[in-house]
Design brief:
By secondary structure, the chain is mainly α. The chain has helices spanning 3-39, 42-68, 82-112, 120-149, 154-160, 164-192, 197-226, 232-241, 256-262; strands at 243-245, 251-254, 276-277. It is elongated and about 65 Å long. The chain starts with a helix and ends in a 7-residue tail after the last strand. Mean pLDDT is 75; it is low at 1-9, 242-246, 249-262 and 268-284.
């Protein structure tokens, strides 16, 4: 499958991943907040906030995908591709400020003013159900990510990817699963040792996990917004396939109309700027 058709397929599949994550997170948020209301668990409140933030972030990612598909116009001759990168950065900010900040604050309050929670069995049930929902969403995102990365390592694929939707959902789901494990340990220790400080400490750790994920997403978004070149193999293949005659004997140059319409970054950074000498394969 060519790079171009592969990208269209990727965007369509990425949208499915986002929808799956939104449905799962909305259901999880409702169950977590219900459990928190009955038990008073700080960790459950933090997890509810986490799932609610992830739900909203899914909506922001869908907005970014929709905006990035707008056709080029006079004001944006290279299209609106970077809209997706902008909204990915907003998602990172929301995770850091709302998810990480509020979770850490909630945990700190419960450490300073601990409150014993009741009916811990409900917490265990909700955490178990949440793990199933989050695990399903994670598997969908991971399967999609595996199909995109090919023979690259996970980090190499993230570094070279021009479509942040899939790895953003993957980051969020990974953070969610880690947060559920931390919440379970916190609730269990608070229950067995009759010490609610563990519950508050778990909430703080969840906030730290979200902050780390937010920083990683912000770092990747910054690279995409500033503009990164297409990886050398893609550039070499596409330049060889899409060249046309230019001025000068035996000289050929890249088809800029083609590159402008298929530039994944939306800023023209992928368009080769130099001509090619016909038959030599060398730039001049």
């Amino acid at each position: 499958m060519s790079w171009i058709w592969g990208r269209k397929f990727s965007l369509a599949e990425s949208t499915k991943v986002i929808y799956a994550a939104i449905v799962a997170n909305l259901a999880i948020a409702a169950t977590k907040f219900t459990a928190a209301a009955f038990t008073g668990s700080s960790a459950m409140i933090s997890e509810g906030i986490h799932s609610l933030v992830d739900t909203g972030n899914g909506g922001l990612m869908l907005l970014g995908v929709h905006q990035s598909r707008k056709p080029a116009d006079d004001k944006h001759p290279f299209g609106y591709g970077k809209e997706l990168y902008f909204w990915t950065l907003i998602v990172a900010i929301v995770i850091f400020a709302v998810g990480g900040g509020v979770s850490a604050y909630e945990g700190l309050l419960h450490v300073i003013h601990p409150k014993p929670f009741e009916n811990p069995l409900l917490n265990y049930i909700v955490l178990g159900l949440a793990f199933v929902f989050e695990g399903y969403s994670f598997l969908i995102a991971y399967k999609m990510f595996q199909s995109e990365k090919g023979e690259q390592s996970i980090w190499e694929s993230i570094e070279t990817s021009k479509d942040p939707t899939t790895y953003t959902v993957l980051f969020e789901d990974t953070a969610a699963l880690l947060g559920l494990v931390v919440a379970f340990v916190g609730v269990l220790l608070a229950h067995k040792l009759n010490n609610p400080h563990f519950d508050g400490a778990a909430s703080i750790i969840i906030g730290i996990i979200l902050a780390v994920v937010a920083v990683l997403l912000a770092y990747e978004s910054k690279g995409l917004l500033v503009g990164e070149a297409v990886d050398p193999e893609t550039l070499k293949y596409s330049a060889a396939c899409r060249i046309r005659p230019a001025r000068g004997k035996g000289e050929q140059r890249p088809d800029h109309a083609f590159w402008s319409s298929h530039d994944p970054s939306g800023d023209g950074s992928a368009i080769p700027q130099k001509s090619f000498r016909g038959g030599s394969g060398k730039q001049h």
